[in-house]
Amino acid sequence: MAVGTATAAWVRELEAALGADGVLIDPDVTAAYARDQAMFAEAGMPAAVVLPRSTDEVVAVMQAAGRHGIPVVPRGAGSGLVGASNAVDGGITLVLTRMDAVLEVSAADRLAVVQPGVVNKTLRDAVRGHGLFYPPDPASYDWCTLGGNLAMNSGGLCCVKYGVTTDYVLGLEVVLADGRVLRTGRRTVKGVAGYDLARLFVGSEGTLGVITEATLALRPAPRPPVTLVASFGTSAQTGQVVEQVVTSGLVPSMLEVMDRTCIRAVDDMLRADLDRDAAALLLAQSDSGGEVARAEIAALTRLCEAAGADFVHSTDDPAEGDLLMTARRMALPALERLGSSLLLDDVAVPRSRVATFIDGCDTIADSSGLVVGVVGHAGDGNMHPTVVFDGGDPDQRARAFAAFDAILELGLSLGGTITGEHGVGTLKADWLERELGPVSLDVHRAIKSALDPAGLLNPGKVFRTSRAADPGAVAGLAGAH
Amino acid sequence: MAVGTATAAWVRELEAALGADGVLIDPDVTAAYARDQAMFAEAGMPAAVVLPRSTDEVVAVMQAAGRHGIPVVPRGAGSGLVGASNAVDGGITLVLTRMDAVLEVSAADRLAVVQPGVVNKTLRDAVRGHGLFYPPDPASYDWCTLGGNLAMNSGGLCCVKYGVTTDYVLGLEVVLADGRVLRTGRRTVKGVAGYDLARLFVGSEGTLGVITEATLALRPAPRPPVTLVASFGTSAQTGQVVEQVVTSGLVPSMLEVMDRTCIRAVDDMLRADLDRDAAALLLAQSDSGGEVARAEIAALTRLCEAAGADFVHSTDDPAEGDLLMTARRMALPALERLGSSLLLDDVAVPRSRVATFIDGCDTIADSSGLVVGVVGHAGDGNMHPTVVFDGGDPDQRARAFAAFDAILELGLSLGGTITGEHGVGTLKADWLERELGPVSLDVHRAIKSALDPAGLLNPGKVFRTSRAADPGAVAGLAGAH
């Protein structure tokens, strides 16, 4: 979509504020910013992509957008999985990757201050020399940005011991919809002065404000891991281990599960000599160090054996541990080889329901006639069933979406949530309404309306802004200016 | 204040919904509900005190309050320290102590579901048999309620390792200002479906809704503690230890400090043979168990010795550890013996500024001519300087309030916050405006207005509802109905 003469005024305002190289309007270029990694989430085409270098430039963007009624979609690296940073037609996509400075690392106060465009791995590397650790580790940690992690409240493999992004947020700087700059939170470990606004913005998927700076808590660096792998003949046995880990008070630093579909797909790809007849594989680590780690893994070994594991092996050699983890990391690429398209789901269930959930996904696979592979963060009940299908085949596509919905339905029926860590975006906005119910939705709308009365920030994402409104109508306004 | 004929209609409505024994209007009885433990915070007199037994009864109270425009002050045990549950003149004080059931303890999902009137210690005791632990432990844990802990986001001694109340909240049921019932959050460990509303209500001091049920995460029970005590000739040495604990990656389960004023007051009371010449005493514990705990305390011992401690002693005998902790627990009662009145402050500073803060409090004590004793959770920088004075002497009183303000000023100047864990209430509402600044205050007001447009919930607490409004004027409306 070209920017017509009717829109030239606001583009010129943006260029005046950000410089010509900070404003992209060539559709061949802006198309690259239309969507994130969610293949099947709704997306429009941005009228302009802006790349601010400072909070002041973000303010200028929001002020111009407000004057002209143009919707604004904040975006990091575009590594998201639910379309939360997908463009809206005629809108501005506000890309924060140029604001990529680690402003401070304080070992004495065990915190870092960062701009939103810093890549997750860059912060991890920057604090390592201080003996410190920033735990949240989404799969895309080597290219996703902290701003995106904050907007989505990202998780990862280490959540089972260390929690998610929001657990590390001390303070934020946020540019509000009207261009005002909010500084909220603190540098102290504790603080209860006023509402917890920082955690309201975290996970709000860019619908309430644009995060331009964050003060993040850090932890002491973990010790080299001891790693365990175990295979089981039934998923019920796996579920029994997960439940007993929880009740026995063990807190591994990782506790992952893969089902038979994933085991075989990985084995086909890596020739890793995995147990192809196993119903499920558990992978666990302890990073407590020395004797404690060995004792934790020994306790976990006993739980696996008591549950009737076919095979249990552990190692304190980090290189061998890495090799074992490769099977887990390769699950998604291996599934990708089985079909042209994937629908990656993200359901969290209470930890006592993990086995029931895996079995339910098997049933859904059977009745849909499609492959559904399940990997997941078993230790916190956050499962990623992935539907594999031929996206070019309309019948398969319809069955794939039906299976995707059946998985969400199953998760809710087990007391779970439709998203453990990927977010809602456009992909699950309708399902969100179902999970939250009308009172919670009204409260969401009231807060959105209080902070962004014109509905300019990331319209159509997470939930419909009002019962009557069509998010497309908001995006469409841009053309009128 | 008696309830006149003009207000009788709403009282009869409340009696019809709650039963006569659920509605108290005798001023001799209701006076007991006028204030919490903050001696000097603003307080009015309630026109009625209601004691609902169920969420439905809370709904009935909010509906009646809405129909008649009567302000409502939610209240737990009244153990607060900032007047957050102090009555407003002519309002309803909504006491939640009768809703005191532990509804569920799930070892398999490591969580508990509770009503708001459950006493903190009751939950701790209820989960102990499952090998579980609810960490937040305010000093009043044996009589304060979880509803109050949630409303205030309470902390305690174990925050340095385990975090505060909000870190344990998975889901909430909240009765909104208009009587609708919001259920928000989840039973799963992870979840990002929609805004983090639960953590918005936590710490909002009853200004956004009435919490009627909570789903709380639990942890594995800690191991018996190893305890260390060390005394120092200068507070700078203490600060050095705190800073080195942080930078070295040690995470004790407790790290407390007492200054010379407190040491001497406690020694006078307990004849405990404390080092009366020490500038500060550090008390620390590790609950990691066995060799790990002994190694952590040994590392801490080395840090204390390197900083030039006059005396270091540690023990893994829990009874001896308890005895050492008595000195810390008795600090406030010991200070109370020194004067008729106390002003207990609650400033959190970055951990690197603990020593500077203690020294600053000394200077403030000298210049005010009053005793200021400092105890604090050194490990998380949350300090409780306490001004001791004769409340009957107007000159001392004025100097005490000036010292109290000077301590807040000092905290802010060191990058700290005016409240680490006690909250704002009426005591610090003016200071809150100073800490947050105009943009954050506007956002607070916008959210308050979105959720409670009539301003019925706990008016005048935390912050002034609008720039122009006088909270007394809202409370005064009650008389007009």
Describe the structure.
- 2 copies of one chain form a homodimer.
- Chain A has helices at residues 8-18, 27-30, 55-68, 120-128, 146-152, 159-162, 197-201, 235-248, 260-270, 290-306, 318-329, 331-336, 354-368, 394-413, 429-451, 471-476; strands at 23-24, 48-50, 72-75, 92-95, 102-106, 111-114, 132-133, 169-175, 181-185, 210-217, 219-220, 226-232, 254-259, 280-286, 311-315, 341-344, 347-348, 371-377, 382-389.
- In chain A, strands 12, 13, 14, 15, 16, 17, 18 and 19 form an 8-stranded antiparallel β-sheet that branches. The first copy, chain A, has a 5-stranded antiparallel β-sheet with strand order 5-6-10-8-9.
- In chain A, helix 1 packs antiparallel against helix 3 and helix 8 (235-248) runs antiparallel to helix 13 (354-368).
- In chain A, a hairpin with a 4-residue loop joins strand 18 and strand 19 (382-389).
- In chain A, 60% of the residues are buried.
- Chain A is an alpha+beta fold and 481 residues long.
- At the A-B interface, strand 9, helix 7, helix 8 and helix 15 of A face strand 9, helix 7, helix 8 and helix 15 of B.
